[in-house]
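Quick check before the chapter quiz. The format below is the same one you will see on the exam, so make sure you can read both the input and the output lines.
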Amino acid sequence: MIYYHNPRCSKSREGLKLLESSKKQFKVKLYLSEELLYSEIEDLLDKLQIDPKELIRKKEKIIEEKGIDLKNMTKKEIILTILKYPILIERPILVSKDKAVIGRPPEIINSILK
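Here is the expected output.
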């Protein structure tokens, strides 16, 4: 399993505690400082079964600062924007072999840990 984690996010820290207490093996991906690949975002979207716009944190300041217009962007443009500004990714995300969940609230990650 891979846990997409932002240590500055309280929900992400709560999810990490749940994961650690589960005793399951997982890898932490610090997506703000580690490289993300286009194919990786596509895989996340497939496993989450969501539209790319649903992966975006709509209240991030960078959306307004950079004039990002999600309504008029293609899937490819949204993914490229995520790669450029990973702070936009909804967090935390836990990924298993065949599915993923956004941990909001953090307890949702338990659905993968069972």
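If your answer matched, good. Residues 10-22 form the longest helix (13 residues).
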